[in-house]
Amino acid sequence: MESLVFSTEIGLIAGVFFVIAYGLLNFEVITADSPIYQGLNFLGALGFVYTAISPFNPGLFVVEAVWAVVALFGLIKIFSGKGITKEDKLENPEANSATI
User: Fold this and answer.
1) Could you tell me if 61 and 49 are in contact, meaning their C-beta atoms sit under 8 angstroms apart?
2) Is 36 left (phi over 0), alpha (psi -120 to 50) or beta?
3) DSSP string covering 61-99, please?
4) Domains of the chain: which residue ranges?
5) Nearest CA to 51 among 16, 21, 9, 22?
6) Where does the chain cross the membrane (predicted)?
7) Largest CA distance in the chain
8) What are phi and psi of 2, to 5 degrees?
9) Mean pLDDT throughout 59-69?
10) Residue 89 and residue 97 in contact, taking contact as beta carbons nearer than 8 Å
11) Angle formed by the axes of helices 7-26 and 35-51, nearest 10°
């Protein structure tokens, strides 16, 4: 079975997105509730979903599809204002522990 168009390139870019997001998070440049972090995770997951289609790799497809949904949920929370803010964490430390 033949790979999809630009499958290799998309897979490499997706991997770069994940590594950049993870690196920025670990070096404390961004936080997990950052739209940049969630956006890079979402785009990276979509890229890997695409590469898992042909030849079909069910393990990668399912994991990355779920990853994309979780990242999309994070983006929706951020942009809808329903996430826990820093002020919420300072005023109510118990709320922070409930989200872990």
Assistant:
1) yes
2) alpha
3) HHHHHHHHHHHHHHHHHHHHT-SPPHHHHHH-HHHHHHT
4) 7-98
5) 9
6) 6-24, 36-53, 59-79
7) 57
8) -85, 145
9) 98
10) no
11) 150
Tokens 């079975």 correspond to: 1
Which pLDDT band holds residue 83 (cuts at 50, 70, 90)? low
What pLDDT shows up at residue 3? 82
Give the C-alpha separation, 80 to 75, whole Å: 8
What is d(CA 94, CA 23) in angstroms, rounded to the nearest whole number?
28
- Two tokens, residue 97: 């522990």
Structure tokens at 85: 């803010």
The identity of residue 70, as a single letter, is V
Q: pTM for the full model? A: 0.80
Distances in whole angstroms, Cα of residue 66 to Cα of each of 21, 48, 72, 75: 17, 11, 10, 14
